[in-house]
Every structure is written in C-alpha cells, then in structure tokens.
Design goal:
Layout (H helix, E strand, L loop, with lengths): L5 H32 L1 E2 L3 E2 L5 H16 L8 E3 L5 E2 L1 H20 L7 E2 L9 H8 L20 E9 L4 H12 L7 H19 L8 E8 L4 E8 L4 H8 L4 H8 L5 H10 L15 H10 L2 E17 L2 E23 L1
Parallel strand pairs: 1-3, 2-4, 3-5
Antiparallel strand pairs: 6-7, 7-8, 8-10, 9-10
Helix pairs in contact: 2-3, 5-6, 6-10
C-alpha cells in the first residue's frame, strides 16, 4: 500500500474540516429557516384579560395549521408563551384536535412538531401536557416532565361528536379525585345542556359536531373552573331560528340593543318551551343554575363578539355584558365557583 505524503494528509485534513464547516452551516441555516417559518404564539393567551389579542392569535393558529404543507414542516413556537389560561388552552387544544382529524382524513397521521420544548416557559409544558394538548404534536413527548410546584391543577380535556353523558361523568370523576364537587347534579345538568345546545344548533352546515370540555382547580383561590367549548356558528347566529318570537319583538319588549352579547343574554333567559324544539325544559337556564345554587361564582359565555357574565356573590345576582371587536369562532362557556 502506497504511503500517503505529508502534504496529501494535510490536504485531507483541511478538506474534512471544510466539509464539516459546510455541514454545520447548512444545519444552522436549516434551523434558522425552521424558526422563521414557525408560527409564534403571543406571550399571554388569556381570554378574560386579553381577549382581542388572544382570539386574533388563535385565529391565526387555525389558519396556519390549515395551510397545505407537509405536516412535519408546520411548527408552532410556544417559547414566547408566558401565561395561558385553562379556557385558552382548551380552545388551542381544539384547534390541534380538529387539524389532526382533518390530516388523518388525508392519510397524514402526524401533527406539528414539539418545537424546542426545553426552552419553553417553566410550567407551560407541564400544564399543556396535563390538559392533553401535547398529544397532537408530532415529536414524542418527553418521558420525564419536570413538574413545577403549582397551586392549580388541570384536568385532561374530553371531546365527543354526540351528546354523551359518559364523557361528562369521566370529567366529573377526575374533578372528584381533587375535590368533592359541590352540587354535582346541577353541574352535570349545565354541562349536558351546553353539549346538547352544541349538538343541536352549533353546526347547521353538516360539519362534525365536536365539542370539548375541561376543568381546573385553584387551591389558593379555592375555585373550581369548568369549561365547555364548541367551534360552531355561535349562539348569536342560532338565536333567530331557535325561538318562536321574532328578534325584533324580543329586543323591543326588553328595550335592549340587538348585538351579540344581548343575544347571549336573551338565550339564557328563554326556556325551551318557548322555542321550536319538541323537548321542554329549562334550556340555557340550566347553565346559569349551577352558579345560582352555589351562591358564589361566575358564569361566562363567549360567542362571536359577545360576552355575557352572570355573577352571584353571597347570593346576590348581577350581570355584565361586553361587546368585543374580534369574533370568537363558536361558543365558550366557563363556570367558576368558590368551593
């Protein structure tokens, strides 16, 4: 075997170093391109205190996930996220859930990647894992999540296409493992009405009638939060065809403005017996009743541009309405009670 000259050896070493540098540069460029193409979440996803920016960001997430590109190239960057409320997390989970169903129909079984999770804000990864959102991300979840000490506990979300009492029971069972549920039957009735309303009215155009429910408990505030969400057309849009009275008559009689928040308010006041439905009952009043019988709590309903709050403090009832600029897709119902 011919012995290599020292000059040739040196050339090989230099060539190898050059190739290594090229490879490193290519990887850096690829990483930069991935980061440029990744969709960045805002730092505060909070519907209650940051509605406009939160809903705008969630709308953009939905559009980004729907883009016709290879699944593994879709990256959602959670690193800017410093705070996310349970309601916002449930809507975000629903976006990933719906996108995964759509991709599965196309023969794709992979979601967006779990992007640089080691750089996420402390506690965000654990919270989203507890809620179940990480299941829709492509990269395998970390085997060992470093659980942060938190006074708030989160319940894994449930989803269904039809009205299923078993799904509601599962959620209540998980809550009961943390705290005893006050007025459990009333909460069941409220959640049942929310899912029935979603199934019957939220999806009039033949879409899958999906709804999602979740919960959290704050040990510091002694506060239980339960949430139901659907991605349908919203209560304000369904109200005209649900009730036998014309909207003009209803709003004239009540002397209130016809807008989304007042439409939600009207929907919570009218019973099913005054609707075009065959079954009789209390309708959305069952949703309010859970707050009323607990004496201390808040019901919040967000739908389209409307926000309706039913507040009970020490048995004293009040209401608050807000009209937003940005429109939420579907309906979000949130119960908060002191326990």
């Amino acid at each position: 075997m011919k012995k290599l000259s020292e000059t040739y050896k040196l050339w090989l070493i230099i060539r190898a170093r050059e190739e290594l540098l090229k490879k490193k540069k290519k990887n850096r460029d690829h990483s930069k391109n991935k980061e440029r193409n990744a969709f960045k979440l805002i730092n505060n996803l909070d519907i209650e205190n940051n509605f406009e920016e939160t809903i705008s960001n969630l709308i953009s997430v939905e559009k980004y996930l729907a883009e016709d590109q290879k699944a593994h190239t879709r990256l959602v960057d959670f690193r800017p996220l410093k705070n996310i409320t349970t309601s916002s997390a449930l809507i975000l989970a629903s976006l990933f859930d719906r996108n995964m169903r759509f991709r599965n129909q196309r023969g794709e079984n992979i979601g967006p990647a779990l992007y640089k999770y080691k750089e996420w804000e402390k506690g965000i990864l654990t919270k989203l894992n507890d809620i179940g959102l990480l299941d829709f991300l492509a990269t395998r979840k970390p085997k060992k999540l470093q659980h942060t000490i938190s006074e708030e506990k989160y319940i894994r979300f449930r989803s269904a296409k039809n009205v299923k009492g078993a799904v509601i029971n599962e959620l209540q069972d998980d809550i009961s493992k943390i705290i005893p549920i006050p007025h459990k039957k009333a909460l069941y009735a409220g959640l049942s009405e929310a899912t029935i309303n979603s199934h019957q009215h939220a999806y009039p155009n033949g879409e899958e009638k999906n709804w999602w429910i979740s919960s959290s408990y704050s040990d510091e505030k002694k506060e239980l939060t339960v949430i139901a969400y659907d991605a349908g057309v919203g209560i304000p849009a369904t109200l005209p065809r649900n009730f036998t009275e014309t909207l003009e008559v209803i709003f004239t009689r009540k002397k209130i403005k016809d807008n989304d928040s007042n439409r939600i308010k009207v929907a919570t006041e009218l019973k099913k017996s005054r609707t075009k439905e065959d079954n009789r009952g209390n309708g959305l009043q069952d949703i309010k009743n859970y707050i009323y019988i607990n004496k201390n709590g808040v019901l919040k309903i967000y739908s389209s541009k409307g926000e309706y709050q039913y507040i009970v403090r020490d048995g004293i009832e009040s209401e608050k309405l807000n009209e937003h600029i940005t429109s939420l897709k579907g309906t979000l119902i949130e119960w908060k009670v002191t326990v």
